[in-house]
Amino acid sequence: MKNRRVVVTGLGAITPIGNDVHTYWDNLVSGVCGIDYIRQIPVDGLPVKIAGEVKDFRAAEHGLDPKAARKFDRFCQFAMAASNQAVKDSGLRSSDLPAEDGQANILSSRFGVYIGSGIGGMHTFVNETAKMIKDGPGWVSPLFIPTMIANIAAGNVAIAHKAKGPCLPVVTACATGTHSIGEAYRAIRYGYADAIIAGGAEAAVSPLAIGGFANSKALSPAEDPTQASLPFDARRQGFVIAEGAGVIVLEEYEHAVGRGARIYAEVCGYGNTCDAYHYTAPCPDGSTPALAFSYALEEAGYTDKDILYINTHGTGTPLNDKAETAAVKIALGEADAHRAILSSTKSMTGHALGAAGGMEAVAAVLALDSGIVPPTIGYKVPDPDCDLDYTPNAAREACPTIALSSSLGFGGHNAVLAFRKVYDNEIK
Question: How far is CA 20 from CA 30, 135, 183, in A?
């Protein structure tokens, strides 16, 4: 059962620029900035007062029972909502659930969930810690641990969709969502499942997280939300913390075709390396992320005839953007690197940490599906160390045939996904 083909049949997104895939994509293409002043928590005393917050999120509008949702941390609510969207979009339903109109059953033991979170239930952790300090451990909720742990989103999604196959939550900081999808791809490719709900979720816009990131000089100190997330621009000073979820349904190709599924793209490559260099800083010469790019490109069968789009990690930190640019040049060679079309959608969403890879995989798939590459907004001042085509300020029609989505996380974790365009449900 080796080397089965894997395709994307469902998409789901909860983001700072839209709580459904259609709105998210329209706002990406339109260059809408979702970064603004923080409203969900008090900002008095915070060194940074801007973030990419999810707006107007109501759990009941995404298929979550309001009473049950109150027992979920915010990150888990996002994961559940995005997963519900993706599964509905795919038309799949576990064989352990009653069939509904327009949905096809899949054997529950062949249906999996790979949804990770870089941090997990940060809001729960902070709230329960405050209770303990004020009133003692007897007042800590008995649901503290199962609400806070990072694997609970995957567990709750599996429960909701009766997915009894492999369930593997990945925790690799900012590379979490990309690794989750990549590992799900391999599980289906090598026969361990027929479909997997995969991606990442995060909700860490809290004083504790902001204080930690800001004091480590990782966050942008900008006070103007429109000038805060500036990937690849010479003025960049750090990333903007964000939240949300991005989830896709991966499915074995013949299984998808057999049930008449709508196929967005083929997953055709995955690279996974570690810098083994520093716990926060990237490898300066880009050599190890370059290997992840190279592995994904080689597995995808990339040639110079392909039109390549790269949805970059592109955080807007001085070190990341320089190292990632170097990695792309090493992997592709100078000529192909300058022909490639890149962009950072974090310029619009901010950096959603463990959710970023899932959100950006959705964007990469839709770039292939629509032929349109979303922009890097706010780009004004070129950096000699970042001299590739970053699609500045306006989306453009490019009709890419292959798209990469890259993520580089604290701890040196590098992950790159490759997707290929599909024509009328036929893989070319």
Answer: 16, 40, 25
Q: Which two tokens stand for residue 283?
A: 């490898």
d(CA 416, CA 183): 11
Q: Which of 123, 351, 386, 413 is catalytic?
A: 351
- Enumerate the β-bridge partners of residue 173: none
To the query of whether residue 161 is one of the catalytic residues in this protein, the response is: no
* Active-site annotation holds for 174: yes
Q: What is the C-alpha separation between 196 and 185, in angstroms, rounded?
A: 8
Q: Which of 268, 313, 386, 413 is catalytic?
A: 313
Q: Which two tokens stand for residue 336?
A: 């192909």
Alpha-carbon distance 222 to 414, whole Å?
27
179 is catalytic: no
Of 33, 76, 167, 174, catalytic: 174
Q: What is the DSSP letter of 346?
A: H
The sign one gets for the Cα dihedral 219, 222, 225, 230 is negative
Token digits for 173?
A: 């900081």
Helix axes of 287-300 and 318-332: crossing angle, nearest 10 degrees? 40
- What does residue 86 show for φ and ψ, rounded to 5 degrees? -65, -40
Please give the average pLDDT of every successive group of 10 residues along the chain, which has 428 residues.
88 98 98 97 94 96 90 97 97 87 86 98 96 96 96 97 97 98 98 98 96 95 96 98 98 96 97 94 93 98 96 97 98 97 98 98 98 98 97 98 97 97 70
Q: Residue 419 corresponds to which tokens in the numbers above?
A: 């997707």
